[in-house]
Write a structure and sequence with these properties.
Layout: E1 14-18, H1 22-28, H2 33-54, E2 58-65, H3 73-96, E3 99-104, H4 113-126, E4 132-140, H5 142-155, H6 165-170, E5 182-185, E6 204-207, H7 217-229
Helix pairs in contact: 1-2, 2-3, 2-7, 3-4
This protein binds 3-methylbut-3-enyl trihydrogen diphosphate (2 copies) and magnesium ion (MG).
């Protein structure tokens, strides 16, 4: 798959990825699961570079779910520390590429202050960038996000009749982001796992068997080419 098949006039505005399969990638190599997570970082940068090449404006990736706390404590600890390190070591590179980095998810007390500070620093440093807005979903669950939205709507004192879809959408974590046009999930799993449930109402889904650490921009171009061949109807009829 090359760039030639891509129609640059209709690339997705917003692409979302469930980066899945790191553990299995490591297991087939007889390595600890942490090595799979480390290898997955290159794939994330492939996705970023692929989006920059295609001029995709929004990329949202699922890095740690509210359900991932159910994993063994050593893996959770590794993931928290690993993500803190990535933010520290790679934020300049993202900044140089013109990427604005944001972290979405619940900032609860299970996240160390040092991790929250790295998140804020990276967000602040890259805030003026406009080439690509990369949202990393960390301690993110869509049901938690919707619950948080309901809380803030109640707190703001809305009357029931004032609440419509626009009001709900405005209280989600990234109200200014368009809904994802295309959602990619690697590793052969065909499920959503509590990612962007509200926002995905009319997203096109692309599932591939490749494990996340093996994902390259060529897979991304493939997904975009298939997306462009689909007919989106949003409940209406073909034009
Ligand atoms: C995705 O890979 C990364 C996270 C969920 C943090 P997994 O760790 O889920 O890898 P598999 O699905 O067990 O192979
Ligand atoms: C989804 O993957 C979450 C992330 C990629 C961070 P999981 O591996 O946690 O999902 P399930 O448990 O297979 O549904
Ligand atoms: Mg998984």
């Amino acid at each position: 798959m090359s760039l030639e098949r891509i129609d640059f006039s209709s690339v997705p505005r917003h692409l979302a990825c469930v980066m899945d399969g790191n553990g299995r990638w490591a297991a087939v190599r007889g390595l600890p699961r942490s090595k799979g997570h480390e290898a997955g970082l290159d794939a994330l940068f492939e996705a970023v570079d692929g989006c920059l090449e295609l001029s995709v404006k929004w990329l949202t990736v699922f890095a740690f779910s509210t359900e991932n706390w159910r994993r063994p404590v050593e893996e959770v600890r590794f993931l928290l520390e690993f993500n803190r390190e990535i933010l520290r070591r790679r934020r300049d590179e993202l900044n140089e590429k013109g990427v604005r980095l944001r972290i979405i998810g619940r900032r609860d007390r299970r996240l160390a202050g040092s991790l929250l500070r790295e998140m804020d620093k990276a967000a602040e440093l890259t805030a003026p960038n406009r080439r690509l807005i990369l949202s990393v979903a960390f301690n993110y669950g869509s049901r938690t996000e919707i619950t948080d939205a309901v809380r803030s709507i109640v707190k703001a004192g809305y009357e029931p009749a004032q609440i419509d879809e626009e009001v709900v959408a405005k209280h989600l974590y990234t109200p200014e982001a368009p809904d994802p046009d295309l959602v990619i999930r690697t590793s052969g799993e065909h499920r959503i796992s509590n990612f962007l449930l509200w926002q995905m109402a009319y997203s096109e889904m692309f599932f591939l068997d490749v494990l996340w650490p093996d994902f390259t921009r060529l897979h991304l171009f493939d997904a975009v080419a298939e997306y462009q061949a689909r007919q989106r109807r949003f409940g209406g009829l073909d034009q």
